């Protein structure tokens, strides 16, 4: 485990959360793979050591570990921050759209079960499902 300057790490985790993950610890966990409780503890300043697994997850997500631990250097090691912000927002929009489409498919299935008289021709249903799958 690497012991670091607590205030810098806490500030940098909070910065990342605010700027790139909409303040959402779960979103940071999902996108980096780092443990959610570890991220939360680092954010709150209740953890002052970072294990190699957490550092690896952050590095694989493009976060500059030197900046994270010391505050020196660029925040990210891949692309510019603006490119990363844009990429993360696009990814989030796509994921939100995917959730909407899955909910729509579920609603259609439920309506068809509740109202058998609305039964679609199997070819039409298959074509609709194919279109929805392509949208996902």
Explain what you see.
The chain has 136 residues and is an all-alpha fold. It is built from 7 helices and 2 strands, in the order E-H-H-H-E-H-H-H-H. The protein has helices at residues 6-20, 25-32, 36-44, 52-60, 65-70, 81-114, 122-135; strands at 2-3, 49-50. It has a two-stranded antiparallel sheet. Helix 1 (6-20) packs across helix 3 (36-44).
Give the key terms.
2 strands, 70% helix, 136 residues, mainly alpha
What would you say about this model in short?
The protein is mainly alpha-helical and 136 residues long. The protein has seven helices and two strands, in the order βαααβαααα.
Strand and helix layout:
Layout (H helix, E strand, L loop, with lengths): L1 E2 L2 H15 L4 H8 L3 H9 L4 E2 L1 H9 L4 H6 L10 H34 L7 H14 L1
Antiparallel strand pairs: 1-2
Helix pairs in contact: 1-3
Structural class: mainly alpha
How helical, in percent, are the residues?
A: 55-70%
Beta-strand content bin: under 5%
- The sequence of SSEs as H and E is EHHHEHHHH
Contiguous uncertain segments of 5+ residues: none
